[in-house]
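Example 3.2
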Amino acid sequence: MAISFLTNLNEEEFKIFLKQALSEILDERISHSQPDLPDILDGKQAADFLRLKISTLYEKTCEKTIPHFKKGNKLYFNRTELQAWVQEGKVKTNDEIQSEAASYTMRQEQKKLNR
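Structure, written as tokens:
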């Protein structure tokens, strides 16, 4: 079914134009929502980056559960270390767990056969 537009574009050209426009809008929103952060963050920047309250961030530094640096009485955080710290908490999917279990079982059976 052909759709008539108020422009000189046919339906397929309009879809392409719309996809490009939406892509540009989304790219612009993403770049504005995630301003370029330096590699070394202060406490407020780190808390904002992790979407934590500053008190929660300080609590985690006192417990030594989050990677950080201390110079004098100032705390600093490495952005890539914080990203890695967050990713360490990844919860495995059922497929990943089943795959690991199957691999483990196969390795155990292989060990038995090699004895």
